[in-house]
Amino acid sequence: MAVEGKPGADVKGFRSMGNGDDMTDHSHRGVRGSAVWDQVGSILAGRTAALGKTGLDVIDVGGGSGIFAVPLAADGHRVTVVDPSPNALATLRQRASEAGVTDMISAVQGDAAGLGSLVGKESADLVLCHGVLEVVDEPSSALNGIASCLRADALVSIVTAQRNAAVMGKAVAGHLLEARRLLEDPDGRWGASDPLPRRFREPELRSVLADAGFEVEEVHGVRIFTDLVPGPLVDEPADVRALAALEAAAEAVPEMRALAAVLHVIASRR
Ligand SMILES: C[S@@+](CC[C@H](N)C(=O)[O-])C[C@H]1O[C@@H](n2cnc3c(N)ncnc32)[C@H](O)[C@@H]1O
């Protein structure tokens, strides 16, 4: 695996996120089997068939410790992870080595805004940008960086924390002042110690994507109920299956996705 950038170096714009702030939270089942994984898998299958390739060139911006990159590499895709965190890249190296996919993964220390120069313009069939737009300094700069490295007909998969779900979460936990702040704050934050710089609603996300020259192909709401149902109520396998079935059924109702913890958008360059 190629590793570029200085270990330990500080990269402008980097915000380290604690585990509890990982809005993508691919659940205890791991990334395989999660709704986001299923959607990414279906994009990969479609692009692989359309391009007649066995493996695609995937860039995972903010790919951190390789939660997506390693299984994608194991499936035969060439994955470049671009992330400012040296610690995350060290974990990625370790995971890649344990999975025997070192040759299929490159790790590049850097910022989403600089993607074009870091990985090369028009070098990707698919870019993953999961849990990143809510933490970067400027979402528009990150999206411009992503746009520059997409090939014609390439897609970007964007996963981002949704504000409405955070409001509901705070309210049902009894943190009513924070819920109100989240509801009304221009950036969707619950206070000065909120670790996230912003949270999106779907119209805001669509607007920032349109401004950066993207066309939205699909929007999915992920985890509409999962974060609200107390864990002890879903400790039996049958409960877990029922919750997954409920999530899948609700995802098909467009109005329900306004409550999803996470929005998953598939977009292309116009
Ligand atoms: C919440 S984690 C998401 C990790 C992974 N994509 C996932 O879905 O599990 C956010 C990641 O974005 C990275 N990050 C923070 N600022 C960034 C920037 N300016 N450009 C690219 N990645 C950034 C962090 O280092 C971290 O790995």
CATH architecture of the largest domain: 3-Layer(aba) Sandwich
Fill in the CATH topology of the largest domain. Rossmann fold
DSSP E strands, number? 8
Major beta sheet summary: 8 strands, mixed
Mean of all residue-level pLDDT scores: 89
Q: Which cofactor or ligand species appear?
A: S-adenosylmethionine
Unreliably modeled segments? 2-23
Q: CATH superfamily assignment of the largest domain?
A: Vaccinia Virus protein VP39
Look at the helices and sheets and give the structural class: alpha/beta
Count of all domains: 2
Query: Rg, please?
Result: 18 Å
The CATH C-level class name of the largest domain: Alpha Beta
Written as H for each helix and E for each strand, in order along the chain, the element string is EHEHEHEHEHEHHHEHE
Terminal-residue CA separation: 33 Å
How helical, in percent, are the residues? Answer: 25-40%
Annotation field: number of helices:
9
